[in-house]
Amino acid sequence: MTLTYYLVLAAILFTIGAVGVLVRRNAIVVFMCVELMLNSVNLTLVTFARATGTLDGQIMAFFVMVVAAAEVVVGLAIIMSIYRTRRSASVDDVNLLKY
Amino acid sequence: MTVLAAVDTTTTLGGGETVAFWVLGPIALAGALGMVFSRNAVHSALWLVQTMLCLGVFYVVQEAPFLGAVQIIVYTGAIMILFLFVLMLVGRDSSDSVVETLRGQRVAAAVLGIGFAGLVGAGIARATRGLPVVGLADAQGSGGNIPGIAELLFTKYLLAFEVTSALLITAAVGAMVLAHIEREPGSRQTQKELSRARFLTDRPQTLPGPGVYARANSVAAPALLPDGRTSLDSQATGIEAQEVDQMPRPTGRGQLGSPDAALGTLDPAPEGTDR
To answer: Residue B206, CB half-sphere, CA atoms under 13 Å: how many?
Structure first.
């Protein structure tokens, strides 16, 4: 077994997250899929840090985690305020800008 | 140093790590698939927790124990709990609709996903064949993983670290602004105004409770007025009033015997229904 297995696993997880973003209608689940994509990228960064023998990849993964936390806080607050006005957490119901 | 390190590096990993990968990798994949395919949003969150825990173990295995701990504490501990909180706030039964807004979107997404996974997976597999495992022993020095990360974080990446603090403060303020509900000042009624408004109505006292009978103490049983009529006010809203004689008998009182037998009235309970 080589490090390639980790990278392929991360690619597959990223793809599953991307397909979930395209398919799911619930805004919270869409957010979870984005989190999965961020996590798979983190796995890639950690793997490459080990392959190249530098810690920079791990630092980058750390910053990705921080940004993901901030993104989740703001995103969930937006979903909450949308839910208060539209009584729905589905992305299909947020279409006021369409017309 | 890099040249020296590259001489004695290998491309294969140890046996224990191989076992850990082949055990946890499928579990992580199953969690990701379960998250996408489960209809219930709470189930999706729990599947994602499974995937994140597996990834945390992968970080620890790959010489990143600090990131592994942060993954488990911050991601599965804080972020997923935040997700669950919001799910409970917006109503967890607001399940996904099965209606496709765009026709053929699911099939297109599936084809796209399989194609993307094949392309990226094959590309990565070809490009990183024979990727050497240098390891972090040289980069970390004698202090280990956490001092190594701390040193980089506070020297080379100091600016990014400081900018992160601004980002976090902005996110906190933004969340407060978005989640805050503005109330008109003075629109909240005081206790005095509430009680005055109540005594101006027809019924200042509380509503009567439901009726309590020997054979029924359900909230669906209406209370009796002194003249034998049932009191309409005693019925809870949203519950259909029932005839007391038609109600199921109370159960779970084996030591007391049947309430009918104790009262010696009316029809005895059928054998075997009451314990």
So the answer is: 4
